[in-house]
Amino acid sequence: MKYRTLGRTGIEVSPYCLGTMMFGAMGNPDHDDSIQIIHRALDAGINFVDTADVYSAGESEVIVGKALKGRRDDVVLASKVHYPMGGDPNHGGNSRRWIMTAVENTLRRLRTDHLDLYQIHRPDPAVDVEETLSALSDLVRGGKVRAIGASTFPASEIVEAQWVAERRGLERFRTEQPPYSIVNRSIEREVLPVCQRYGMGTLVWSPLGQGLLTGRYRKGRQTDTHRSGGMPQHFTDQRKLDVVEQLIPLAEKAGLPMTHLAMAFAIAHPGVTSAIIGPRTMRQLDDLLTGAGVTLDDEILDRLDEIAPPGTDAGPNDVSYTPPAISHANRRRRPAAERSAA
């Protein structure tokens, strides 16, 4: 497996990053089986592992910690902080208070004394970015974290964080972890160019379009159901399904499974360092590993640009970050009394 430099950190990582969200109660509750999957990925040359405290309420980190016993020094280990970990209002977010507590919990679960990459899982409008960067800088200087990054930040907030770091003499975000796939290409418009401008590495999540690009879900033929009892919204998004219907014959003509086409697309962009795979079973991992050497030629990439235009999303990204200015109605409307007075 050919390795790539993670931005300007000097850290060499595999083009596939093993995401561990599916290890634990959220996906595969069998610890031994999950550990075997992690070992299989490492044996195949993947040296980049990404987890988060919120994945199965810390269980994913516990599994990863078990799996890396005796192999920790050979792995670039990343985790994330932000989402609530319990009912306490201060057990979540991007405050110094929580970051300093959360990192200790993460290190304990992972059975390690340091993280190679510690990422802020989402922006937090309630916290000054200087507060967050200051806490992360102390972790770097204290040796508990080697590099820091962000996840699913808008381009404007990435730029703001870079400027704050420079002006205040703080550690800066070295990486960004945004969503990216054939059906979700909006980061090509601003996020990826900004990351390239600041020398940031990128590890993109959901390169399979949250499962849509496996080819299992077809227009008018959705027979599988979600465990919760219903079809996930993005599996019934007609705009995305229209794209899938055009991708399937393209993949067949190229002699590629849909998963291989999708993964090869994700790592073809010069601004992308690694694409995160999130297998739940050994079979899923093996399928993805067999496509690790696939390279798409210009003809196929040109056709993909026609089907799913650069810089656009085929449909809404159902689990991505929506700024409060969009999600909160009171940020979009003047008070009723003020509107009526006008």
UniProtKB/TrEMBL annotation:
Name the Pfam families for this protein.
Aldo_ket_red
Extract the CDD domains matched here: AKR_AKR12A1_B1_C1
Q: Which Gene3D superfamilies does this chain map to?
A: NADP-dependent oxidoreductase domain (3.20.20.100)
Keywords, sorted A to Z: Oxidoreductase
- Stretches assigned to the NADP-dependent oxidoreductase domain: 17-308
Sequence segments annotated as region (Disordered): 306-342
Tell me which positions the record assigns to the signal sequence. Answer: none
User: InterPro entries, from UniProt?
Assistant: AKR (IPR020471), AKR_Detox_Biosynth (IPR050523), NAD(P)_OxRdtase_dom_sf (IPR036812), NADP_OxRdtase_dom (IPR023210)
Q: What is this protein called?
A: Aldo/keto reductase
Question: In which organism is this protein found?
Answer: Sphaerisporangium aureirubrum
